[in-house]
């Protein structure tokens, strides 16, 4: 059976019109090209070319064989061009796990700008409010927060957004404005279980006996409950900024904000894949620079 390399070489010889021109185009010695065609003819048991001192002429068998070789060579060139396009314009599907909902806050804008930049990449974002497994090999990329994840996969810090206390003007008008942490047990509270105050808060807010009117693992529900005037919530600043500007929420005791480390994890096997590397670079460019979260939390954008 003829090798694919020899078939491509034969097609190149025919297209070039001579062994000399083919050897020059292929960057190979003339003797090597001539010998390989002879070996190909011997393997096939038939003559493919009639050689003269000035030109080459295909035999009938050579004409039939050349048609197939030409198709093969064209397909090989198409495959190489497809790989070049892939390197030039990344494509494919990414699976990403998030331990927190992002509703209409920063993360949707971050991901939208990434997809807008790379139109041939698709993204599947999966919410795992119970927490992500940092060694989950079914995901290309994972977000985590809190202590640095223990995993054999690469971990990249993405800065430290803040959490704070928020309530609506309606609630504060009815229940009064707490002036210190000691006032909070006399107020109705909204508990976001993915960011529990007893874990992610400064020491001054630890150990308080709080009255929770609403308990949820969904950020949107927690925020809406606060906006509706049902209690005080311990919520991410970045998710409340727009509502503070609109007058729907009021920050309380801002000196008690808590910095929450965010981490990006991506599978070791995915490190060399352009789409994964580009997403990591995109996230680092927007969120990993010094002061990026401070700027976002002040509404300055990117």
Please give a structural write-up:
By secondary structure, the protein is of the alpha/beta class. The chain has three domains: 4-88, Winged helix-like DNA-binding domain superfamily/Winged helix DNA-binding domain (Arc Repressor Mutant, subunit A, Orthogonal Bundle), CATH 1.10.10.10; 92-160 and 260-297, D-Maltodextrin-Binding Protein, domain 2; 162-259, D-Maltodextrin-Binding Protein, domain 2, CATH 3.40.190. Helix content is 40%, strand content 20%. It has helices at 4-16, 19-26, 30-44, 60-88, 106-117, 169-175, 219-227, 237-245, 274-287, 292-297, and strands spanning 49-51, 56-58, 92-98, 121-127, 141-145, 155-157, 162-167, 188-192, 211-216, 232-236, 250-252, 258-259, 262-266. Strands 7, 8, 9, 10, 11 and 12 form a six-stranded mixed β-sheet that branches. Strand 3, helix 5 and strand 4 (121-127) form a beta-alpha-beta unit. The protein starts with a helix and ends in a 5-residue tail after the last helix. The model has no long low-confidence stretch (mean pLDDT 85).
The residue fraction in helices comes out at 40-55%
Query: What's the story with the biggest beta sheet?
Result: 6 strands, mixed
SS content category: alpha/beta
> Average pLDDT value?
85
Please state the second-level CATH architecture of the largest domain.
3-Layer(aba) Sandwich
Runs in which pLDDT lies below 50 for 5 or more consecutive residues are none
Q: Report Rg.
A: 32 Å
CATH superfamily membership of the largest domain: Periplasmic binding protein-like II
Give the percentage of residues in beta strands. Answer: 15-25%
What is the overall shape?
Answer: rod-shaped
What distance separates the N and C termini? 60 Å
The total count of strands amounts to 13
Question: How are helices and strands ordered from N to C?
Answer: HHHEEHEHEEEEHEEHEHEEEHH
CATH topology of the largest domain: D-Maltodextrin-Binding Protein, domain 2
Per CATH, the class of the largest domain reads Alpha Beta
Number of distinct helices:
10
Q: How many domain units? A: 3
């Amino acid at each position: 059976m003829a090798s694919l390399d020899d078939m491509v070489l034969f097609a190149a010889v025919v297209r070039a019109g001579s062994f000399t021109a083919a050897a020059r185009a292929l960057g190979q010695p003339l003797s090597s090209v001539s010998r390989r065609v002879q070996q190909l003819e011997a393997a096939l048991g038939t003559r493919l070319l009639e050689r003269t001192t000035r030109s080459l002429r295909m035999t009938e068998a050579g004409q039939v064989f050349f048609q197939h070789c030409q198709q093969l060579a064209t397909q090989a060139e198409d495959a190489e061009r497809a790989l070049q396009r892939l390197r030039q314009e990344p494509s494919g599907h990414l699976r990403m796990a998030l331990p927190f909902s992002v509703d209409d806050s920063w993360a949707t804008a971050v991901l939208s700008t990434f997809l807008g930049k790379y139109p041939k990449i698709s993204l599947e974002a999966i919410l795992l409010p119970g927490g992500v497994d940092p060694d989950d090999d079914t995901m290309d990329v994972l977000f985590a927060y809190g202590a640095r994840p223990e995993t054999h996969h690469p971990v990249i810090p993405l800065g430290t957004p803040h959490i704070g206390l928020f309530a609506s003007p309606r609630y504060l008008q009815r229940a009064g404005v707490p002036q210190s942490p000691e006032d909070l047990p006399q107020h109705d509270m909204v508990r976001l279980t993915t960011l529990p105050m007893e874990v992610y808060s400064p020491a001054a807010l630890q150990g308080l006996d709080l009255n929770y009117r609403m308990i949820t693992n969904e950020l949107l529900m927690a925020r809406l409950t606060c906006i509706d005037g049902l209690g005080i919530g311990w919520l991410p600043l970045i998710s409340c900024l727009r509502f503070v500007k609109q007058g729907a929420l009021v920050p309380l005791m801002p000196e008690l904000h808590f910095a929450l480390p965010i981490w990006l994890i991506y599978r070791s096997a995915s490190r060399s894949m352009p789409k994964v590397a580009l997403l990591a670079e995109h996230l680092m460019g927007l969120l990993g620079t010094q002061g990026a979260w401070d700027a976002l939390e002040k509404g300055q954008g990117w």
